[in-house]
Amino acid sequence: MSASRRRPPFISLVVPCYNESAVLPLFHETLTQKMGELDCVGYEIVFVNDGSRDTTLDYLRTLATLDPRVVVIDLARNFGKEAALTAGLDEARGDVVIPMDADLQDPPGLLATFLQNWRDGYDVVLARRCDRSSDSWLKRTTARAFYNLHNRLADIPLPQDVGDFRLMDRHVVDALKDLPERRRFMKGLFAWVGHRTTIVDYTRDARAAGSSKFSGWKLWNLALEGITSFSTLPLRVWTYLGALIALLSMSYAGFIVARTLLFGVDLPGYASLLTSILLLSGIQLIGIGVVGEYVGRIYMESKQRPIYLVGARYGRGSLQSPESRPHEV
Ligand code: UDP
Ligand code: MG
């Protein structure tokens, strides 16, 4: 065990919130109670308001005045969970940092086990859902398919059934902050930075209140983001597919020449001609589409826009207006 781990840590909890007013009071109460039982020198809860349209911000602002451990980062608009998490990680000051969802699906009861593993020398403690029965059948099946496909394509595998809920040591968070990309697929970035990792299992309950913010379409885009951020295989596969089709065409051409020499010319073949034209144009369009995905990503990265913009921040004794800190990267 390193010397720094013999003393209790300062803990940062990072909580992205998008329209979570229904669940936040219960979340804060449950968390505060559990944190009181932990062996730590202190803690902070960094709430990131990701452009909520309900009363989330009002509640968080009040909370920041009542609880000195609460810090609120109010993003200028909804930037999505990945950007909100990045904002929270940038703000967190703890020796260990723990991203958590606001809906209590990430159980605060697991924090003591996280800390124990950290004390045992692990830099990253992952929480794995051993029971996903609170998710729908469709979500479970598509999630499994995504992990399988992603891990087949990408060099760095994503651990199955592990979300953003995890403990990270300070130097892991610093390593994450050094990654320059703007489009951030956090699960992949977490896996990429590596470090000494262990896994603890937990049962994922249903949301305590409110509804899921991830529609099927959002999840599909997240999956695309994940694969295209961490693999170039979808780009390269067209070379092989093209070579295979060319080989097949040449063999077919050879067959036609031989057949013509042996049996003469016959005209039929309209249907097969049409089918092959349609099939090949379809394949070509898919190929162009995949290239387009990557070119789009290069384009977005090349603009070098900040990952998020902070509108205002509350708590930590410093109340800063949007004018004083407009551009946060
Ligand atoms: N979230 C966010 N920005 C978004 C969508 C979601 O900050 O654009 C937050 C949300 O408030 C919650 C967490 O991300 O704290 C996980 O969202 P949710 O529980 O809806 O996802 P699910 O558990 O259904 O996958
Ligand atoms: Mg949830």
Poorly predicted sequence stretches spanning 5 or more consecutive residues:
319-329
Spatial order of strands in the largest sheet:
7-5-6-4-1-2-3-8
* Structural class label: alpha/beta
- Tell me the overall shape: elongated
Mean of residue pLDDT? 85
Largest sheet: 8 strands, mixed
The CATH topology label of the largest domain is Spore Coat Polysaccharide Biosynthesis Protein SpsA, Chain A
Question: Based on the structure given, which CATH architecture of the largest domain is correct?
Answer: Alpha-Beta Complex
Order of helices and strands: EHEHEHEHEHEHHEHHHE
**Strand count:** 8
- Count, helices: 10
Strand content: 15-25%
The CATH class assignment of the largest domain is: Alpha Beta
CA-atom Rg in angstroms: 25 Å
Helix fraction, binned, reads 40-55%
Total tally of structural domains: 2
The hetero molecules present are: uridine-5'-diphosphate, magnesium ion
Subcellular location: Membrane
Protein name: Glycosyltransferase family 2 protein
Keywords: Cell inner membrane, Cell membrane, Glycosyltransferase, Membrane, Transferase, Transmembrane, Transmembrane helix
Pfam family, one: Glycos_transf_2
